[in-house]
Write a structure and sequence with these properties.
The complex is a heterodimer of chains A (about 180) and B (about 575). Chain A is α+β, with helices and mostly antiparallel strands. Chain A contains six helices and nine strands. Chain A is elongated and about 65 Å long. In chain A, about 25% of the residues are buried. Chain B folds into three domains: about 190 residues, Rossmann fold, CATH 3.40.50; about 150 residues, Rossmann fold; about 170 residues, Rossmann fold (3-Layer(aba) Sandwich), CATH 3.40.50. Chain B is globular and about 70 Å long. The chains are: A alpha+beta (about 180), B alpha/beta (about 575).
């Protein structure tokens, strides 16, 4: 059965790493539902957040293939309940459509949105939340003349207690003992 | 030859703060020398000319073998690596030079062989402009290299090469590619070389999984019908002695994968033969009777497992494998030991009990007898008819007493060589396993002989595969590489024809070959050659070939429609292995 998984992947700053990761997914016919990349809390280490729908067996294989890449530091795979995640969406709506009455104020307020800019021609609204919440607002705004809609990929923070830095430390430790493989 | 004056040489190596100021091209070659390289296979071209221009300055330390095609260089470098245990080195220019390597890179990747590929790239300011002979080899080679990188600045060369060697050799080895722009080869740098021994994001030295090994030991001590499946990993980690000690102490029978052959002596009392589609009857059939499988350095390839749903259903499986991504990939295992084979076996041996499984082993011997009567005897000792492939291989095996290095192409010649040669030394079998690359045999035979000039190197090729890379006869001639070439000629693409016969109602579409006179071709390259088609001349012809000082080509006319058996048909279970058609 296919489920939604969020892959949090920490990599070194190496050109081409993105290509290597997407090759692993496309070769197995796995679509990327959402993708974001940014520098992580550790300087020089990048965090890629990839959302895919696949089976648990496949995600395990795929994450091991990703972990195997020389420039990948660590791969975590999470189901949605193991992470806090958000997406951000921007809406551009005609001013005429929304200026009649208090509609705009109401919509923005009930959806916890934010008005970023108002001009005679358009209004730009920002909304942060889960995909379903964003879609809900989209449906509400559509009748008023939606000019543009853009949505980011997922950004996620894990609930786990162990942080990347402790893994990085472990990697350095393992390297120190590499001459004696029996040391644990 | 133009020799540099002392003054000129001094000028090219000005020292600044203890480091030498040299060109990128010099740096590439000096890095290779620092890594202990003495042989390079390659082919020059526009973008890599600065490197070739410097090559002669180092000819006392670096020998360059000019092949006739980049693919030949790649296969030769791989075979060199397989027989020497040291990384193979391969040079090619940008564009077509680099893309011609791709089959060779992929072949080394699937068979986990360390080869350092150095390709040249167009001048850095032309990258992305579709310049002459520009190709994105980084993008092209990405799925088939363990690691690759592009170098655009000369000062990045030493670090890139150091990393490349470290990555290629360590963990599960594999090919790496460095793409170096022409300007980076020409510009100067302050040269200082330091070997790489650590990459933060890559740690091939995994601490031993002691608990897993201990539970494996308990399972081994309680097993009644255990079987060891030994793969290429045994050879790569140099664990042949440990495997032998482990098998002898526990009394567990051993089967090898195609690439695992020569990791365990073929004449050992515990050896049961080769696994896989055309492997031996016993180990295939009895995989499904085993109660414990100890898989060492192998990856449960589909050619080994047959139908996965019906594979080793009665067995608990212990998987000793350095590449974590291979564990639970095809076969779900019960105990995973993600470590180097040698380390695991060394730790495991004291934990296991001395034992013997005579009754279990007898089952293998019964299978051997059946296979001998139905397949081996008629294959190796036919009383009439044309010469059979197996006769040739077993004669060569007897004549060389299992001491030779055997190289093969792909197809029937490969399967028959794997089945009938009796290997007695590690790393004495070179073949294209995972990729099944036709055309591998001739350049690989040449590379193996260059790597091990002290050994008799014999390459078996079919008439089809030979013609894919036969231009390498030119290289063999030019460098007088005394490799022995046996063409098993049936005027067919034999393995495809066998499948057509068995699964496509004998519809021999495009498998019959009208061949040239191979003896004349060989002689045109000044390589002595002979054609033999009579059984009674085979023995003396092989002897003449083996006794020849230089290279020699022997064309053996074999049974036109010979088949390789036993066979596990595609989609069938290993226990449904067939002995006859």
């Amino acid at each position: 059965m296919k489920e939604e998984f969020t892959i949090s992947l920490f990599t070194e700053d190496h050109i081409g790493i993105l290509g290597q990761i997407t090759i692993i997914l496309t070769r197995r016919q796995i679509n990327i539902d959402s993708f974001t990349a940014s520098e992580s809390a550790v300087k020089g280490v990048y965090l890629l957040t990839i959302v895919v729908k696949t089976t648990i067996e496949m995600i395990q294989k795929v994450s091991r293939q990703m972990e195997k890449l020389v420039d990948v530091l660590k791969v975590f795979v999470h189901t949605s309940d193991q992470i806090i995640y958000q997406e951000i969406a921007l809406f551009k709506v005609t001013t005429n459509g929304l200026m009649s009455g208090n509609i705009i104020d109401h919509i923005v307020r009930t959806h916890n949105g934010r008005i970023l800019e108002v001009s005679p021609e358009y209004i730009i609204i920002e909304k942060t939340g889960h995909k379903a919440e964003i879609t809900e607002l989209l449906v509400q705004l559509e009748p008023f003349g939606l000019l543009q809609f853009a949505k980011s990929g997922r950004v996620a923070i894990t609930k786990q207690v162990r942080e990347l830095t402790s893994y990085l430390k472990e990697m350095d430790e393992a390297n120190r003992f590499k001459t004696d493989p029996t040391l644990n | 030859m133009y020799m540099k004056t002392e003054q000129e040489q001094e000028q090219s190596t000005v020292k600044i703060n203890g480091t030498e100021c040299i060109s990128g091209a010099d740096a590439i070659l000096q890095c290779l020398i620092e890594e202990g390289v003495d042989t390079i296979f390659g082919y020059p071209g526009g973008a890599i000319m600065p490197v070739y221009d410097k090559l002669m300055d180092y000819d006392s330390k670096l020998r360059h073998i000019l092949t006739r095609h980049e693919q030949g260089a790649a296969h030769a470098a791989q075979a060199y690596a397989m027989v020497t245990g040291r990384p193979g080195i391969c040079f090619a220019t940008s564009g077509p030079g680099a893309t011609n390597l791709v089959t060779g890179i992929a072949n080394a990747f699937l068979d986990s062989v360390p080869v350092v590929f150095i390709t040249a790239q167009v001048v850095s300011n032309l990258i992305g402009t579709d310049a002459f002979q520009e190709t994105d080899i980084i993008g092209v080679s990405m799925p088939v290299t363990k690691w690759n990188c592009q170098v655009k600045k000369p000062q990045e060369i030493p670090e890139a090469i150091a990393k490349a060697f470290y990555i290629a050799k360590s963990g599960r080895p594999g090919p790496v590619l460095i793409d170096i722009t022409k300007d980076a080869q020409l510009e100067k740098l302050n040269f200082k070389y330091k070997k790489c021994d650590y990459i933060r994001s890559y740690n091939p030295h995994i601490p031993l999984h002691i608990k897993a090994i201990e539970s494996a030991a308990i399972m081994i001590n309680h097993a009644e019908r255990p079987l060891i499946l030994a793969g290429h990993g045994v050879l790569i980690s140099e664990a042949e002695d440990e495997l032998k000690a482990f098998a002898e102490k526990t009394g567990i029978p051993v089967a090898c994968t195609l690439l695992g052959l020569s990791g365990f002596p073929s004449d050992h009392r515990l050896f049961t033969g080769m696994l896989g589609m055309h492997g031996n009857y016993g180990p295939n059939l009895l995989t499904n009777e085993a109660d414990l499988i100890i898989a060492i350095g192998m990856r449960f390839d589909d050619r080994v497992t047959g139908n996965l749903k019906k594979y080793a259903q009665k067995a608990t499986i212990i998987h000793i494998e350095i590449d974590e991504a291979e564990i639970n990939k095809n076969v779900i295992v019960d105990v995973e030991i993600n470590n180097d084979a040698k380390d695991v076996l060394s730790y495991l041996i004291p934990l296991v009990n001395e034992n013997s499984f005579e009754k279990w082993i007898r089952e293998f011997r019964i299978c051997d007898k059946t296979e001998y009567e139905k397949v081996i005897k008629p294959d190796t000792k036919p009383e009439k008819g044309e010469i059979r492939m197996a006769e040739v291989v077993s004669l060569v095996s007897e004549m060389t007493k299992g001491e030779a290095i055997i190289v093969t192409d792909v197809g029937q010649n490969q399967m028959i060589a794997a089945r009938y040669y009796k290997f007695s030394h590690p790393n004495s079998f070179v073949t294209s396993g995972g990729m099944g690359t036709m055309g591998f045999g001739l350049p690989a035979g040449m590379g193996a002989k260059i790597g091990r000039p002290d050994k008799q190197v014999i390459t078996f090729v079919g008439d089809g595969g030979f013609q894919m890379t036969l231009q390498e006869l030119g290289t063999i001639f030019q460098y007088n590489v005394p490799v022995k070439i046996i063409i098993l000629n049936n005027n067919y693409l034999g393995m495809v024809r066998q499948w057509q016969e068995m699964f496509f109602e004998k519809n021999y579409a495009s498998t019959e070959l009208v061949n040239p006179d191979f003896v004349m071709i060989s002689r045109a390259y000044n390589i002595p050659a002979k054609k033999v088609s009579k059984r009674k001349e085979l023995d003396s012809s092989l002897k003449e070939m083996l006794d020849a000082d230089g290279p020699y080509l022997l064309e053996v006319m074999i049974e036109k429609e010979g088949n390789v058996f036993p066979m596990v048909e595609p989609g069938k279970s290993v226990s449904e292995i067939r002995l006859t058609y």
